[in-house]
Structure formats: structure tokens, C-alpha cells
Amino acid sequence: MQPNTLSRALANGAIWGFIVLELIFFSVAGSYLSISDQAFMDYDNMLLLLKQSAPIGIIAMGMTLVMVNGNIDLSVGATFAIAAIVLLDSMTWPIFAGLGDWVIPVAWLLSLLVGTLLGALNGLIVWKTGVDAFIVTLGSMLGYRGIVFMFNGENPTSHLNWTLVDFAEAEFLGLATASWFLLAVTAGIWFLMARTVHGRNAYAIGDNREAAVNAGIRVGPHMMINFAIIGFLAALSAVVFYSESGSVNPNDGQLYELWVITAVVLGGTKITGGAGNVIGTFGGVIAIQLLRKGLGHIGADTSTVNLVIGLILIAVLFLDRQLNIKGKEELKV
Amino acid sequence: MATLTKQQIGSVLAKQGILIAFVIFMIAFTIANPKFLTMDNVFSVVRSSAILGVMALGVTFVVISGNLDLSVGSMMSFSTIVVLDLHDKIGPFMAIPAMFAMTLCLGAFIGFLVGYLRLNSLIVTLGMLSAIHGLTLTYSGGQNMDIADKEGTWFSVFGQGTALGIPVPILIFIALAALLGLTLAKTPFGRKVYAVGGNGTAATFSGIPRARTVFFCYLISAACVATAGLIQASRSLGSQNTVGQGLELEVLAAVILGGASLLGGSGTVFKTVIGVLILGFIQNGLLLMGLQFYIQFVVTWVIIILAVWLDIAAKRGKLWSAIA
């Protein structure tokens, strides 16, 4: 038993405790303040919450991987928008005209491919130039967003395909398509991080990059793969979301990186790398969505949501540090 | 000197690379379009860069001290909205100091969290980005803010006036740059900022008050943001709640372009000014060349990465990184 097991367990479980607190608070407060008769912890409401968590949640899983690596990706929102445009626009391309509804999987693949490539490009630059991931993705966040605007100016790109909408709105075993995608991605990345060599290397690199190099891990390609994964997931998130909505604004996905990073940090991933897991991130995603929905339920507007989430992020950082200091002091003894 | 070694060239490039790039850009754009280097055009570029520039001056302090400030964009929206609102309620004479006080409070709060509590500045300012945006929306009730009597107020002087034939925003920018440049380069406080950013532990052991230094860096940043908000408010005399949204990244881009390392300890106010001007002139030059407005984002992306890459490459003496 390590001395800091207790504080670590506290830190890992904190997000779930926080979710329970939110549920209780909004249920109680909702019964006094809410205009609607519906209870907050309504089954349908919770299912809807899971579905609404999907766009942020899918990207957050990739961000967990990248942040455990000790990197960060600020360009996910722009990648999301590019992938969405590729998805909707490619369905109208004349070369695919003869495909009928088979154009859907083709458009999906194209969109996912573009996302993966954009992510890999970030990774390649980080690897080959040695420039910090923060700067690289800050630059590509501007650059990718510029590409989005160059495509269609400030106009939205729209294309509605009813077969696609039907698929996206379908429910399987009571869960919406988007929810299934979120759960599948969570499971997939969990397996990757917890049960494979690649996952073990991710923690090793984030913990001590030099030691990882000395242990024979090829850090560059490893990080590039992780950036490709987060690019893929940003595109997947766009695929899931825009299959249903059918119209993308050039500003869509802006500030997604902030929501995603907030969710990941709330879930206990260290910004310096080496620690974190997708289960915590899943909790972080749910906690944020719960907060947005709950505050709406008791009649607060979006401004309060922004205010509260910002302050909670800082509070979590503070508490997390206090717990860690305690752990370190115990180690010294 | 005919016998410059490769390394010497490398170090000259690394030290003055951004200045050389700036001159090359200016020459190229002037050849492409003779209108580029006219007085009118230069004034209009510098005037429109002034808001970004003033914010970048403050962020330079924060970055040199080894921290980040992502909250300057939403803080600028806040100060713009507040000063516009108070202008009609208590008059411009009182509104300006009141707005400065409120913005400085926000800066002090961030400085306390990052300086004294030693929390990670990226996450803290990310949280504050969201929180201050919420605060602004709550303050304004989500409404656009407008000054009732736009013709009869002297308040517009900060954004629209001219003195000695030079637009006031440019004068404010130059004055602040000179003041903060001297503070950073010539005062004990400036040296402390470099020491804290270069090696925080060593700074602590040599008796430099690390927490207080970081705290004051954020105060300076907030003061610059408030000034930028003042210029913005006075220029437009009305504003949306999201006027500063996304500016934090452009500001950071300008600071990085100027050669300040995100690890802290390096960078100067003068180089940041160059970074700001490069961004402004590139945007303008591309437009004058008849290119689409949005291509500037792509060009900025390429330039940022090239600038930082070459800077690092010159320091390590190799173009490609050593990452396996």
C-alpha cells in the first residue's frame, strides 16, 4: 500500500461524489424553483443528458490520452468544424451522385479521414520541430479555423439527408445513437489506456519523458498517434452531431477546447501529464452537462452556467493540489 | 566580418530573427503594393493593432514570469461593457476609475490564485475566461451596451481622437510600451520578473518574493486589459458582450511571435510590439494583395510555428528535434 492511496482514492472518487451532490441539489432546489412539474432526476431527462454529453464527451476521451502524454490540443474545435463541413458537403459532390444512400458511409469515412490527418499533422509538427504542443495547436486552431472560413465565408454549410437523420435519431435498447457512440469511445479508449502497451507508454511519457526515451519508447511516433486519435475523435464527434442537425456554421465548435479541457481536468487528469483516466473524464463530462442542465432547470441562465463552471474548475484545481500536497508530505515521513 | 561561423549566424538569426522577418515582410508587401507603406495605411494598421497591442504588453509580463493568461479576452469584454454602462450612470469621469478598479480586482484575484496559491495558470485563467464571461453577461443582462448621447461626450477621445496629428490609441500604445518596456528592462521589479520566470526555485532561494512578483504581473496585465477596454469602448461607444472573445489567443500569438518563451524567463516588450505589428501588417498586406480575409489565419498559423521552430532550432543548433 502506498501512503497516498487514500488521497488518490479521494481524488478519483471526488468527481462521482460531486455528481451525486449535483443531483441532490438540483432535485431539491428544482422542486422549489423550477417552473416545470417534471422532476430533475427523470429517467428520460437523464437519457437526454447522456445524449447531449456526446459531442464534448467523445473529444474529451481523446484529450485525456493527449493530456496524460503531457501535451494539449487546442485545435479540436476547429477540427470538429472542418470535419462537419467535409461530412455535409461531400454528400453533394457530383462524383458521389450515383451512390444513392451509400454516399453516407463514404462521407463518414472522408470526414473521419480528414480529422485524423489534421490531428496527425499537429502530431508530426510537435514531433519533428520540437515546438511545444500548446503553441503548435494554438497555431493550428487559428489555421484550421481559417480554412473553415475560406471554404464558405460566413455562410452555413447545409445538407439534409433524411436516411442519415433517421439513423442519428434512432434509439437502440433505449439509448440514442450518440449515447452509444460516447459509450463505445469511452470503452475503447479505456481499453487502449489501461490494457495495452501503447497506453502504458502514454503514462510513462507523461510522467518522465526522458526516462521513457531511455527505456526505448519511441516518443515522437507515439505522440503523433495520440494526436491522430484525438483528430479522429473530433471528427467522429462532428459526424455524430451533424448527422442529426444537417447544418454547420463556420463558428461551430468554437470554445469546445475549453469545455473539453474543463471536463478532463475535472475528471482528475493532471495538466502536467502522467496521471488521469477516461473513467474520471467520463465523470467530468457528465458533471459539466449536469451543471448546465441543472442550472437551466432551476431557472438560471447561461451566464450563471459560465460563471459557476469557471469557479468550480478553479476550486477543483485548488482541492486537488491540497490533496496532493498532503500525499507528498506523507511520503516524506 | 568575413569569418562569421555558422553558429554565429545562427545566434544572430535567433536573436534578431523576428526583426529580420519583419523587414522582409515589409519590403515584400511594399513591392507588391506601393500603397502599403503610405502614412495613411501605416497609421490605420497601427491604430487597429493598438487594442491587441496594449493587451499584449501586459501578457508579456505574465508570460516572462512563466505563466499564461487566457482570460484577457473576456476580461476586455468585461471592462468595455462596464465602462459603457457606468458612463451613462455616473459620468465618464467616475466611470473610468471605477472600471479600472473592477478590472484590477479580477486581475488581483487571478494573481492571488496563481501567485500565492501556486495554482496552474493555464487552468486558472481558463476557468476565469469562462467565469468572467458569465460575470459580463450577468452584469449586462445579455444586452448590448450603448452610450445614449454619442455626439456630446468627450469620452470618444481615447478611441477616435488625434493629438499632434497622431491617433490617440497609437499614442496610448506607444506610451504604455515605453513605460512597461522601461519597467521590465531597467527596474529591480523587471529583473525579478525574469528571475522568477527563468528559475522560480532559484529565485525563491535568492530572496525574491516569487508570489508577489507573479501577483503584480497579473495586476499589470489587468491594467493593460482595462486600458484596451477603454480604447475599445471609446472607439465604438457601444458594444456586444463578446467583443473580446478569442482575443486571448491572438494576443498570445503576438507575444510568442515576439520570441517570448512559454517556459518563461525570456522576451522583451520591444519584441512583443514587433510581434503585434507583424500580425497587423500581415493582415493588412494580404488584404491589399486582394487575398481573401480569412487566409490571414492560415498565414498566421504558419508564421507562428516557423518563428518558434527557428528560434528553438537556432538554440539547439539543429533544425529537427531530438525526439526519437
Automatic annotation (TrEMBL), chain A:
Pfam families with a match to the protein in the record: BPD_transp_2
Transmembrane region(s): 12-35, 47-68, 75-96, 102-121, 133-152, 172-193, 224-243, 258-291, 298-319
GO cellular component: plasma membrane
CDD domains membership: TM_PBP1_transp_AraH_like
Topology relative to the membrane: Multi-pass membrane protein
UniProt subunit comment: The complex is composed of two ATP-binding proteins (LsrA), two transmembrane proteins (LsrC and LsrD) and a solute-binding protein (LsrB).
Keywords: Cell inner membrane, Cell membrane, Membrane, Transmembrane, Transmembrane helix, Transport
Functional summary from the UniProt entry: Part of the ABC transporter complex LsrABCD involved in autoinducer 2 (AI-2) import. Probably responsible for the translocation of the substrate across the membrane.
Primary location: membrane
Superkingdom field: Bacteria
Gene Ontology MF terms: transmembrane transporter activity
UniProt keyword Cytoplasm, yes or no: no
Keyword Nucleotide-binding: no
Compartments where located: Cell membrane
Name of the protein: Autoinducer 2 import system permease protein LsrD
Native source species: Kangsaoukella pontilimi
Xref: PANTHER family: ABC TRANSPORTER PERMEASE PROTEIN YPHD-RELATED-RELATED, AUTOINDUCER 2 IMPORT SYSTEM PERMEASE PROTEIN LSRD
InterPro entries linked: ABC_transp_permease
TrEMBL record, chain B:
Location in the cell: Cell membrane
Top-rank taxon: Bacteria
UniProt key word Transmembrane helix: yes
Residue ranges crossing the lipid bilayer per the database entry: 12-31, 51-72, 93-116, 122-142, 163-185, 213-231, 251-282, 294-314
Keyword Cell membrane belongs to the record: yes
Gene Ontology cellular-component annotations: plasma membrane
Chief location category: membrane
Any Pfam family the entry gives: BPD_transp_2
Keyword set, alphabetical order: Cell inner membrane, Cell membrane, Membrane, Transmembrane, Transmembrane helix, Transport
Mode of membrane association: Multi-pass membrane protein
GO molecular function, one term: transmembrane transporter activity
Protein name in the entry: ABC transporter permease
Species this chain originates from: Kangsaoukella pontilimi
